[in-house]
Specification:
DUF4175 domain-containing protein, transmembrane, 80% helix
């Protein structure tokens, strides 16, 4: 069961942050807006960083 333990924590955390950010956007203004931006921005930033690392690691294809 080690594979499941390694696979699920990050997606669950990002999902919880997204859900919390969406809920904060509904609840009110002021500090709630800041919580909304953080809750929705962190998963996007993590995804972009992960994609950037994946794209940077690729070898350029050889041209003919």
């Amino acid at each position: 069961m080690k594979l499941i333990d390694d696979t699920w924590p990050m997606p669950v955390l990002l999902g919880a942050l997204s859900l919390g950010g969406l809920a904060a956007g509904i609840f009110g203004d002021g500090a709630w807006d800041a919580l909304c931006w953080v809750g929705l921005g962190v998963p996007v930033a993590v995804t972009v960083a992960w994609l950037w690392r994946q794209w940077r690691g690729r070898e350029p294809s050889a041209r003919r």
